[in-house]
Amino acid sequence: VTRELVLRAQGGDHQAFERLAAANARRLHGVAVLIVRDPDAARDAVQETLIEVWRSLPTLREPDAFEGWLQRILVRACYRAVRARRRVIEVPGLEFDTPVASGEREVEDRDQIERAFRRLTIEQRTVLVLHHHLGLALAESADILGIPVGTMKSRLNRATEAMRAAIAADERATLVPEGQIA
Amino acid sequence: MSYGSSDLDRRLQGFFEAASAETLPDGLLDDVYWVTQRTTQQRGPVARRFASIEAWWSTPFGHAPRLRLLAVAALLIALLTGSLVYVASHYRRLPPPYGPAENGLLVYDLD
């Protein structure tokens, strides 16, 4: 179905493009939110991505490569959105829709991961999202980022280490009572 | 407390799932469609190669079709006239014994 829609949209069929956009928008937004850590920047990145997709679709040679191509455009748009906003200061945490049935421990755990994740650089967040969230192989992720597989592997290792360090720092911060120096 | 790779992976995946479950902002797609309906698509790789020819063919002398037809016709007539003048001015009669035979006696042999 996707291939057919891509082919039709490549030929200028706007309805086909709208169906493609609607089918992918939520996933794209989820990825953008994770990478840029800012709701407005994520919205900008997704909009920019979809507009770019519409404009450039006829240049896509292989319709089956649509998914990877889409993700590549999104990642670039995320980087641009972050650069445009230049938010060096701490970004306020995003509130996610947590299931009501979730236990307190689970919520705490997720909050801790979120705090740690927010401390990472955009490059580190991107590799973690591509690998762990989208489930892409190293070669696919490397292709999306336009880097060699070896670089992708080392970047993923560094991001994982940074995440571990951030979690450990967060735990130390919560263990030390207020007013005391660790 | 240290975390093993699989434990961190599991926690990250749980966090990512929750984060990606966020709803799409209102009006995001409407704004996109508003722009894309007014935006032309880029040309594909094959079409792009012929774009300059196509552009010339569609408007070789501007956008007025009558003027275009007249211009093409005038160009063809000018080319034809020029060719005729050139051929006529360069025509040379070949000296005898070459060239077409003149009227006169026929020479022949009798045994």
Helix-strand layout with pairing:
The complex is a heterodimer of chains A (about 180) and B (about 110).
Chain A: H1 2-10, H2 14-36, H3 39-56, H4 66-85, H5 104-119, H6 122-133, H7 138-145, H8 149-175
Helix pairs in contact in A: 1-2, 2-3, 2-4, 2-6, 3-4, 4-7, 5-8, 6-8, 7-8
Chain B: H1 5-20, H2 28-36, H3 45-49, H4 51-58, H5 65-89
Q: In short, what is this structure?
A:
The complex is a heterodimer of chains A (182) and B (111). By secondary structure, chain A is mostly helical.
Number of strands of chain B: 0
Tell me the greatest interface.
A-B, 48 and 36 residues
Largest sheet of chain A: none
**How many helical stretches of chain B?**
5
Q: Give the integer mean of the pLDDT values of chain B.
A: 77
Shape of chain A: elongated
Approximate shape of chain B: elongated
Ranges of chain A where pLDDT stays below 50 over 5 or more residues in a row are 96-101
Q: Kindly, what is the distance between the CA atoms of the first and last residues of chain A, rounded to a whole number of angstroms?
A: 57 Å
Radius of gyration of chain B: 40 Å
Structural class of chain A: mainly alpha
Give the tally of β-strands of chain A: 0
Helix content of chain B: 55-70%
The portion of residues forming beta strands of chain B comes to: under 5%
Quaternary structure classification: heterodimer
Could you list the spans of chain B in which at least 5 consecutive residues all have pLDDT below 50? none
Give the structural class of chain B: mainly alpha
Main attributes of the structure:
heterodimer; A: 182 residues; mainly alpha; 8 helices; 0% strand; elongated; B: 111 residues; 5 helices
Give an overview of the whole structure:
- The complex is a heterodimer of chains A (182) and B (111).
- Chain A is mainly α and 182 residues long.
- Helix content of chain A is 73%, strand content 0%.
- Chain A has 8 helices and no strands.
- In chain A, helix 2 packs across helix 4, helix 2 crosses helix 6 and helix 4 crosses helix 7.
- The termini of chain A are far apart.
- Chain B has 111 residues and is an all-alpha fold.
- The radius of gyration of chain B is 40 Å and the shape is elongated.
- The termini of chain B are far apart.
- In chain B, 8% of the residues are buried.
- The mean pLDDT of chain B is 77.
- Chains A and B meet through helix 2, helix 3, helix 5, helix 6 and helix 8 of A and helix 1 and helix 2 of B.
